[in-house]
Amino acid sequence: MVRFFEDFEVGQIFRSGEIEVTAERIKSFAAEFDPQPFHLDEKAAQESLFAGLAASGWHTAALTMRLLVDSDLKIAGGTIGAGGEELKWPRPVRPGDRLRIEAEVLDLRASRSRPTLGIMKIRLTTLNQNGEPVQISTPALMVRRRPTAV
User: Fold this and answer.
1) What rounded mean pLDDT belongs to the chain?
2) Which of 40, 44, 103, 117 could be cross-linked to 111 through a Cys-Cys bond (beta carbons 3.0 to 4.6 Å apart)?
3) How many structural domains is the chain composed of?
4) CATH of the domain at 15
5) In angstroms, rounded to a whole number, what is the distance separating the alpha carbons of residues 113 and 102?
6) Is 53 within 8 Å of 23 (Cβ atoms)?
7) Does the model's pTM come out above 0.90?
8) How far is the C-alpha of 109 from the C-alpha of 88, rounded, in Å?
9) Confidence of residue 42 (pLDDT cuts 50, 70, 90)
10) Taking 60 as the threshold, does the pLDDT of residue 149 lie above it?
11) Which three-class secondary structure state does DSSP give residue 3?
């Protein structure tokens, strides 16, 4: 079921399935986008602030986006961001972690400049297998309004 702006209510919570993070995927992402030793090499990572191999925060953000798209949120026309106010990584993502997301609707408002859209602010929390947050963000999403019959 795809959802239009009118289908959302403040307080609703949407969830995703899980995705497992592997050392190979951590290193592959890092090699291309964030080539720092603590994302690429176990020995170097052991001696870093992380005390072990950790995914890039940007890798966590990309995984979060995948989970959001695959979640039960299902926004008509796709998940299109309009910015955000917060992005936190309270703990590292490690090989073997299984991530999932919870998205809570915080605010809904009609767009002043584009009457066919609404703006939905959500709290997007990415959790590991222990229910611990590994990423917290509050994006604003552009959501299509339900077409009216003429």
Assistant:
1) 96
2) 117
3) 1
4) 3.10.129.10
5) 30
6) yes
7) yes
8) 25
9) very high
10) no
11) strand
* Strand ranges (E), the chain: 13-15, 19-20, 80-88, 98-110, 117-127, 133-144
Taken as a whole, the chain contains a residue count of: 150
Is there a domain that residue 119 lies in? Answer: yes
Assign 110 to helix, strand or coil. strand
Q: Specify if 149 maps to a domain.
A: no
Q: Which residue has the tokens 């009609």?
A: 110
Q: Residue 150: inside a domain, yes or no?
A: no
Tens digit of each residue's pLDDT (9 = 90 or more) over 61-94 = 999 999 999 999 999 999 999 999 999 999 999 9
Q: How much of the chain, in percent, has pLDDT values that exceed 70?
A: 99
Give CA 24 to chain center in angstroms: 21
Alpha-carbon distance of 90 to 138, in angstroms, equals 14
User: 99 and 18 in contact (C-beta within 8 Å)?
Assistant: yes
User: Which domain range does residue 80 map to?
Assistant: 5-144
